[in-house]
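Dear support,

I submitted the protein below through the web form. The confirmation email said the job was done, but the results page showed an empty box. After a refresh the structure appeared. I'm attaching both so you can tell me whether what I see now is the final result or a partial one.
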Amino acid sequence: MSSKFFTNRESNSLFDKFVAVFENVNVDEFDALVGYFRSSGYFKLRDHLDKVNKIRILVGINADELIAKHNNSYTLFDRSNADATREEFLKNLLDDIQECNYKKEIEDGISKFMEDIESEKIELRAHPSKKLHAKIYIFKPTVFNEHTSGEVITGSSNLTEAGLGMP
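What the results page shows now:
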């Protein structure tokens, strides 16, 4: 088993490392434990998550208002009536977008995020203590068991635009 140290200094970035993993490993599940989660980080990574079947994010301290608001409003709806839930949610989302003057990139990101929540591709949870500051990213391949290996990144970078090393 190999071990490689990676630092996000100079031209290295956590975003580039994530892209390399997603392009070279058939990732089936992506787990993240972070202190801070920002929509900017998720939106930057989202195109690379298309082939990932399950995304689980545990936030230890804080998620930005945009993500928290839309995640909480969706979870209040009745999932047993998917059509009505989707229609009501999309109406609320559209109203919010029209009122808040989002950029197109943000609007597209919110839509993809909500599709991921609705399809249960993503699970977003907050740690009850609000004191968890760890950062761990786990990439599990399609066939994952005790005899296969995945990728793990741990360090000091949150799932935010700044943490990913984006300008």
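Response: this is the final, complete result; the empty box was a page-load delay. The first strand starts at residue 27 and ends at 37.
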